[in-house]
TrEMBL record:
<protein>
    <recommendedName>
        <fullName>Major facilitator superfamily (MFS) profile domain-containing protein</fullName>
    </recommendedName>
</protein>
<dbReference type="GO" id="GO:0022857">
    <property type="term" value="F:transmembrane transporter activity"/>
</dbReference>
<dbReference type="GO" id="GO:0016020">
    <property type="term" value="C:membrane"/>
</dbReference>
<feature type="transmembrane region" description="Helical">
    <location>
        <begin position="136"/>
        <end position="160"/>
    </location>
</feature>
<feature type="transmembrane region" description="Helical">
    <location>
        <begin position="206"/>
        <end position="230"/>
    </location>
</feature>
<feature type="domain" description="Major facilitator superfamily (MFS) profile">
    <location>
        <begin position="1"/>
        <end position="394"/>
    </location>
</feature>
<keyword id="KW-0472">Membrane</keyword>
<feature type="transmembrane region" description="Helical">
    <location>
        <begin position="278"/>
        <end position="301"/>
    </location>
</feature>
<dbReference type="InterPro" id="IPR036259">
    <property type="entry name" value="MFS_trans_sf"/>
</dbReference>
<feature type="compositionally biased region" description="Polar residues">
    <location>
        <begin position="441"/>
        <end position="461"/>
    </location>
</feature>
<feature type="signal peptide">
    <location>
        <begin position="1"/>
        <end position="19"/>
    </location>
</feature>
<keyword id="KW-0812">Transmembrane</keyword>
<dbReference type="Pfam" id="PF07690">
    <property type="entry name" value="MFS_1"/>
</dbReference>
<feature type="region of interest" description="Disordered">
    <location>
        <begin position="413"/>
        <end position="461"/>
    </location>
</feature>
<keyword id="KW-1133">Transmembrane helix</keyword>
<feature type="transmembrane region" description="Helical">
    <location>
        <begin position="105"/>
        <end position="124"/>
    </location>
</feature>
<dbReference type="InterPro" id="IPR011701">
    <property type="entry name" value="MFS"/>
</dbReference>
Length: 461
């Protein structure tokens, strides 16, 4: 039974990772082809760039107004419905010759392209606490790969064919993702079926979470600053590489984004070996140190040696993966019945950091070049470390280090525990109506293993 559960869980995680990769790509295809769009629609480059802005604004709207519904609605039909709606709405983007229509539909597609942010809380529901970080790493890796591959693939296709082809590609991939999830994604009941639904109170509930949960606020602020580092670097990098002494072509600059692919793909491995074994805050601090050192190296030598930006890209990706996975792993222990709202609060603040990093990085680069924008990244990293250090990993309040300084997690069982199948299925709502057979199988597995299927509390004792 445990082997079967592990196999099904692995297939589900891979399917969710692929879904996250190819759905989040919707947001980034346009960034590499804005100049081609300007020619096709006969508009200025500045006006064409509003497509990218509108799509990101739509995504932010979806985070705030669609993602929290994952705590109310059954998630299988909700996720499949969003993907099908987005894929259908995508067809006019492939065909329309009207720029206002293209821009408006881009906003709507951005709003409904939030399925990856519904997948992450779902993994938080299903993954055993001892493996939550490595399970989340699979989905986070899919997200990061989606960002990199979308820009690279769009740039390559646009160099040799019509830019519309990347949108036709996106359309086909979305329907493929729909088909795969339709086959592999189990049906999870609503986590809050008896909740009196009030749509207009949701934003206030999300704001209240940030105001009442110290761990969530700490993680969200760290995510804000990390996102600022990331977007400031990638936004200003194209200016650096297209200017003397480098003067690289657009294709070379686009391929530069593939530097961190190995780091991203290996995330589940180092998450299992390191992040799962340490308290999340320690892993986040490790990641921020690596990230900040990378910015220092890149800022110091990037103006005259391309090795600087290369090292910076690798260390930002590695440190960023550590920080993101650790912080997400920690917040999914907050209010399990409200994980989608917790994730929304985290992501809205993180997204604000992306916008801040882009705006501040561009402004500083215009004033003082690569060194000024790099100094901004160093400052962001320093502030993030301070936020991590003012509140310890076991502190219940807003500031302090009560509860000990031990780096290793204390909730890990000394031996591999087989208990988590029943517990995680119960939390996800699979044990209950229609889940009696699964529960009997788990109990049978427990008996055959000599009673090794236990609860978290028993493991800790």
């Amino acid at each position: 039974m445990n082997i079967l559960f592990g196999f099904v869980s692995g297939v589900l995680h891979v399917s969710q990772s692929n879904a996250s990769c190819f759905t989040v790509s919707n947001l980034y295809y346009n960034q590499a082809v804005l100049n081609k769009m300007a020619e096709t629609f006969d508009v200025t480059f500045e006006k064409a760039s509003s497509v990218a802005t509108l799509m990101q604004a739509g995504y932010c709207s979806g985070l705030l107004f669609i993602c929290p519904l994952g705590d109310i609605f059954p998630r299988r039909p909700f996720i499949l419905g969003l993907i099908a709606f987005t894929a259908t709405l995508w067809i006019p983007l492939c065909l329309t010759t009207s720029f206002p229509s293209f821009a408006a539909i881009s906003f709507l597609c951005g709003a409904t392209t939030v399925t990856p942010q519904l997948m992450l809380p779902l993994v938080g529901d299903l993954a055993p606490p001892a493996r939550r970080a490595s399970s989340l790493a699979v989905i986070v890796s899919g997200l990061s790969l989606g960002v990199l591959l979308a820009r690279t693939l769009a740039g390559v296709l646009a160099s040799f064919t019509s830019w519309r082809n990347i949108y036709w590609f996106g359309l086909g991939v979305q329907w493929l993702v729909f088909g795969l999830l339709y086959i592999w994604m189990p049906d999870y009941p609503s986590k809050n079926p008896d909740t009196k639904f009030n749509y207009f109170k949701m934003p206030w509930q999300i704001a209240r979470l940030l105001a009442t949960e110290p761990l969530l606020l700490q993680a969200a602020l760290v995510a804000f600053l990390h996102s600022g580092i990331f977007t400031s670097y990638w936004t200003t990098l194209s200016f650096l590489l297209s200017s003397p002494p480098y003067e690289y072509s657009s294709m070379v600059i686009g391929l530069f984004g593939l530097i961190g692919v190995v780091v991203i793909v290996c995330a589940p491995i180092y998450s299992r070996l390191i992040i799962d074994r340490l308290v999340p805050l320690v892993s986040a601090i490790m990641g921020l140190v690596v990230e900040t050192v990378g910015v220092v190296v890149g800022t110091s030598v990037g103006s005259f040696n391309v090795a600087g930006p290369v090292v910076q890209a690798i260390m930002i990706d590695l440190g960023g993966q550590f920080t993101q996975i650790a912080m997400r792993s920690s917040i999914y222990g907050i209010q399990p019945l409200a994980r989608n709202r917790v994730n929304t609060a985290y992501m809205v603040v993180s997204f604000a950091g992306q916008l801040t990093g882009t705006a501040v990085g561009n402004r500083l680069y215009a004033q003082g070049g690569w060194v000024y924008s790099g100094a901004c990244g160093i400052a962001f990293g320093g502030f993030a470390l301070i936020i991590c250090l003012v509140r310890g990993p076991r502190e219940k309040g807003w500031v302090g280090w009560s509860g000990g300084w031990t780096c290793r997690r204390e909730d890990l069982a000394p031996k591999k525990s087989e208990m988590t199948t029943e517990q995680t299925l119960e939390e996800a709502g699979a044990v209950g109506e229609g889940g009696e057979d699964v529960q009997r199988d788990v109990q049978s597995a427990s008996a055959s293993n000599g009673g090794n299927v236990t609860s978290d509390g028993e493991n800790q004792q």
